[in-house]
Amino acid sequence: MKELKLIGKHVRRYWLQYVLGIAALALVDLMNVYIPQFTGEITDGLKAGAIDMDGVWRLVGLIVLLGGGMALGRLGWRYFLFGTSLSIQKDMQREMFAHLETLSLRYFNEHKTGDLMAHFTNDLQAVRMAVGPAVVTVFDAVVMTVMVLFQMVVYVDLQLTVLAFVPLTLVAVGCYFYGIEAKKRQTRRQEAFSSLSDKVQESLSGVRVLKAFVQEEEDFKAFARASENVKEKNLAVVKLRAVFGPSLDAVTGISLLLTLIFGGKMVLAGTISVGQFVAFTTYISMLVWPMIACGDCINMFSQASAAFQRISCIFREEPDIVDREGIPEGEDVKIRGELTLKDLTFTYPDGEEPVLQSVNLHVKAGEMLGILGRTGSGKSSLADLLLRVYDCQEGSLLVDGRPITEFPLAVLHRDMAYVPQDNFLFSDTLEENIAFGLEERISQNPELRQRIINGKIAQFDH
Length: 462
Prior knowledge:
The chain has 17 helices and 4 strands.
């Protein structure tokens, strides 16, 4: 239910495209069911001599017109439904990325980068298949089945229709059990893919360390194990489909065999005509697609259900560090730079021992202070607390004489310059990396960009 709510708001946004796409799909199915009837009429007319070539050409012309209408209809529903599924995938990508950027550092410490990347690739691809191709498959299968059965009863014979369709009802039972097992295997498959993505990302990011310690061979073995795990989980899905697909074909074959036996007897007895028999066998063939579609749509919905569960976990996450209610807007707040630490003690959320304990410090605005200490003494932790990457106990860290939590996060990040010890360059030009975070000031002061190019960064007024 939670997964349906997650995707429901995106589907409702494109309700008109869905209505137009489904309407076009219904028209295609409606035109499709009349082609066997016209073929049967031609067969009966020629056999009885009740139709001339003009009549044949008229019916052939109708079949051609139906074929042209079906082509235009297929173009329409593919444009609306497949296009809409791509739009929903894009919207969810943007929404999920924006939500991830609001989460605190704790979340990224607890979740691997490769696993998060898999959400944007494998999981959202499964979502797209569910809101696009799967919708087409379900609707087409249901509507086609109803229309074909109606034509079989009205145009041919009720008893023959029931006799031929009864074996096909076994598919519903098979689809139920197939869906349960398919969901389990799809979940394990997507988890294996996430593990492989994380392994690749980790190895490529740390390739210098791997080479420095001559660990390429061991790392390759670890990658091979992750790759083999993905292969096994994918094969488990393929094996299930390999059993389910032929089973559907066997049931369809039984239905067609009953049609040939009993339908042939009805033709010989004169109960139905040869044309009706030809049309009926065509209708049976047309029912093959809805039966196969049952397996395909269950497979797609199983993948999507597993993906929905993983994606919804992201959206349920809330940031740990947020602005306190009632604080003034960032535009009205300025930081002078006075810092006060009162018996500050800090322990990381996943730690047991404090990294900072009973720290007292006062720095006046405009003063310069250097803090020295060995690795792990808490220097970086103190800098993180000033930016509220983490929160400490209330009242132990004051800025301009006020608790740091009384300042909006946007103000802290705007008025405090921070140079981390671990440098990171984005995949862009050196100029853009140097100007990172100064885009608004550059747009207001074109001379600033030239100063960046000239390397006069030290002259900036912070």
